[in-house]
Amino acid sequence: MDSLFNCAGLPTNAPGQQIVRVNFVGHRHLTEAILPTMAKGSSVAFISSAAGMGWQPNFPTLKGV
């Protein structure tokens, strides 16, 4: 595989925990599962909803996820 593009997201009016599970945890889980099959130099990209905005102040909490 040469590239992986994850595209998923829930609207900002969905429950907060559900948004994080779909917009972040889901992307991460799929990416980590696929990485071993990807050739060296492959690329990974993903987009999701506005839930990704403001991640920097919450990084200590997200780091454990």
Outline of this structure?
With 65 residues, the protein is of the alpha+beta class.
Can you tell me about this structure?
The protein has 65 residues and is an alpha+beta fold. The chain has one domain. The chain has two helices and two strands; from the N terminus they run E-H-E-H. It has a two-stranded parallel ribbon with strand order 1-2. Strand 1, helix 1 and strand 2 (43-47) form a beta-alpha-beta unit. The longest helix is centred in the middle third of the chain and has 19 residues, at 16-34. It is globular and about 35 Å long. The mean pLDDT is 82.
Distinctive features:
alpha+beta; 2 helices; 65 residues; 2 strands; two-stranded parallel sheet; 37% helix
Number of strands: 2
What fraction, in percent, of the residue positions are helical?
25-40%
Tally of separate helices: 2
Q: Looking across the biggest beta sheet, what order are the strands in? A: 1-2
Shape: globular
Order of helices and strands: EHEH
Low-confidence stretches: none
Number of domains: 1
Mean pLDDT: 82
Largest sheet: 2 strands, parallel
- Assess the beta-strand content as a share of residues: 15-25%
Distance between the termini: 26 Å
Rg result = 13 Å
Task: Look at the helices and sheets and give the structural class.
Answer: alpha+beta
